[in-house]
Design goal:
Blueprint (H helix, E strand, L loop, with lengths): L2 H5 L6 E5 L2 E10 L3 H9 L1 H4 L4 E4 L7 E6 L9 E9 L3 E6 L6 E10 L2 E9 L6 H18 L9 H4 L2 H8 L3
Antiparallel strand pairs: 1-2, 2-8, 3-4, 4-5, 5-6, 6-7, 7-8
Helix pairs in contact: 4-6
């Protein structure tokens, strides 16, 4: 285990092969009911506590404005298309990017002790796992902290290290 992965408060994600190509996947379990996890992932005021927020009409086929809150002040809002939404179990969205839609899929399920989340991001280039992996890892640790699963999330600069980027790159 590298020093960076030892500092991580949750397990590393993985790169999986899918019909659409490589995808970055994270599976996390939480001690909160499924409805609470869904709310933390979809309600703007709860999202703002750990990742960002959105405005607009939330329905399949609609486009909402997404604003990351921890990416720096010069990070402009993104347009995000809602591809699928089946509360409280599944949400798929496409972020616009020059490479094409950046698909994020969230799948939630009940567990004996609470709920689980599978986050999957399609990768256009396998090497992008080195950038996206540590980012999602950090944000999911922030979610766990917000849900009361952990006491603290490391600062971005302490977390997003060359060693952690290398750990994600080695999965490709």
């Amino acid at each position: 285990m590298t020093e960076s992965s030892a500092r991580a408060t949750s397990p590393l994600g993985r790169v999986a092969s899918t019909a659409e190509g490589p995808a970055l996947e994270f599976r996390r379990e939480y001690r909160v009911p499924l409805a609470d996890l869904w709310s933390a992932l979809t309600e703007p005021e709860l999202l703002a506590r750990w990742i960002g927020t959105w405005t607009g009409e939330a329905k399949v086929g609609a486009t909402v404005r997404w604003q990351m809150l921890h990416e720096g002040e010069d990070c402009p809002p993104d347009e995000v298309n809602i591809v699928a939404c089946e509360p409280p179990r599944q949400l798929s969205v496409d972020f616009t990017s020059p490479e094409g839609p950046w698909r994020i899929e969230l799948t939630l399920s009940d567990t004996p002790t609470g709920s689980s989340l599978l986050l999957r991001q399609r990768l256009f280039r396998p090497e992008s796992a080195a950038d996206a992996g540590p980012g999602w890892h950090w944000y999911l640790d922030r979610l766990a902290s917000d849900l009361g699963e952990t006491d603290l999330t490391p600062a971005w600069d302490d977390f997003y290290t060359p060693e952690l980027r290398a750990a994600y790159q080695s999965m490709v």
